[in-house]
């Protein structure tokens, strides 16, 4: 499978290039960098700490997409929307690990998914998606007299909060309860907030150091508490999951898919 990595010069981009290199059946078709990046023209494999592969970083996305089977994208919301349109034109699989997407971005992704398969997830790892499946099941089992709180911590450089993974877990909890997360979500508490409204799903975000990612979902009932947690110790797991998703998505019908689809977790 010929894969394009966007944001090739970034930390996640380099990990994606390495994951493509290490996965049988995959090859790096192109590497995209932002216009003006000092990485333009450099060998993408060398940037990732690999032997030269003869694939220079370019800022010309569309010609690269036309000659590829899929795109791995952990960029920015605005860039992801642009790439989704190009993937739709080329009719190739688009793997999206970008976080911080707002409703206007998601609407454009849904439009693009009518023409090409899009696999989007706030986290590409098996562990977190299995955790989400368990959260959905527990939320469906417990009543709204159990409070749900989602706690996440990431490194000091992360620019969005709550994390995409935390939102993924919140969506799983909301699905389990049969409610809309947008109507149940409480993302910020400060000052005299009053008592916690029943049925809400709370979020708390911590930032500091070099933490890769820690997530905990707390179900707090009267006199007891259930805690489900996941700790990421290697960013490479996100890259490997993205490549796995690309292989699964090749040849799929146009549509919007998730890592739960890739991993067969929807039935859990």
Give a written overview of the molecule.
The chain is of the alpha/beta class and 268 residues long. Helix content is 37%, strand content 24%. The chain has ten helices and twelve strands. Helix 5 links the parallel strand 5 and strand 6. The longest helix has 16 residues.
Provide a brief overview of the structure:
The chain has 10 helices and 12 strands. It is α/β, with parallel strands linked by helices.
How many strand units?
Answer: 12
Helix content: 25-40%
How large a portion of the residues is in β-strands, by DSSP E?
15-25%
Main β-sheet description: 7 strands, parallel
Low-pLDDT residue spans: none
The chain-level mean pLDDT equals 94
List the helices and strands and how they pair.
Layout: E1 2-6, H1 11-22, E2 27-32, H2 44-47, E3 57-58, H3 61-66, E4 70-73, H4 77-90, E5 93-96, H5 103-112, E6 117-120, H6 126-141, E7 147-154, H7 164-177, H8 181-184, E8 185-186, E9 201-207, E10 213-221, E11 224-232, H9 236-249, E12 255-257, H10 259-263
Question: Any descriptors?
Answer:
alpha/beta; 10 helices; 24% strand; 268 residues
């Amino acid at each position: 499978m010929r894969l394009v990595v966007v944001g090739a010069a970034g930390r996640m981009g380099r990990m994606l290039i390495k994951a493509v290199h290490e996965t049988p059946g995959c090859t790096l078709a192109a590497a995209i960098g932002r216009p003006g990046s000092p990485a333009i023209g450099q060998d993408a494999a060398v940037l990732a700490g690999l032997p030269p592969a003869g694939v220079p970083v370019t800022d010309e996305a569309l010609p690269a997409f036309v000659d590829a089977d899929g795109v791995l994208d952990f960029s920015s919301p605005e860039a992801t929307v642009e790439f989704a349109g190009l993937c739709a034109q080329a009719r190739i699989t688009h793997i999206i690990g970008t976080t911080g997407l707002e409703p206007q971005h998601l609407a454009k992704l849904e439009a693009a998914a009518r023409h090409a398969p899009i696999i989007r997830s706030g986290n590409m790892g098996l562990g977190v998606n299995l955790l989400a499946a368990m959260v959905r099941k527990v939320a469906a089992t417990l009543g709204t007299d159990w409070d749900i709180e989602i706690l996440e911590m990431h490194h000091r450089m992360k620019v969005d909060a709550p994390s995409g993974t935390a939102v993924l877990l919140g969506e799983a909890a909301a699905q389990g309860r049969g409610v809309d997360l947008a109507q149940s979500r409480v993302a910020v508490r400060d000052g005299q907030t009053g008592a916690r409204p029943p049925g809400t799903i709370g979020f708390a975000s911590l930032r500091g150091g070099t933490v890769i990612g820690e997530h905990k979902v707390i179900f707090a009932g009267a006199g007891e508490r259930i805690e489900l947690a996941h700790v990421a110790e290697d960013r490479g797991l996100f890259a490997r999951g993205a490549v796995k998703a690309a292989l699964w998505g090749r040849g799929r019908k146009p549509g919007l898919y998730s890592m739960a689809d890739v991993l067969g977790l929807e039935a859990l």
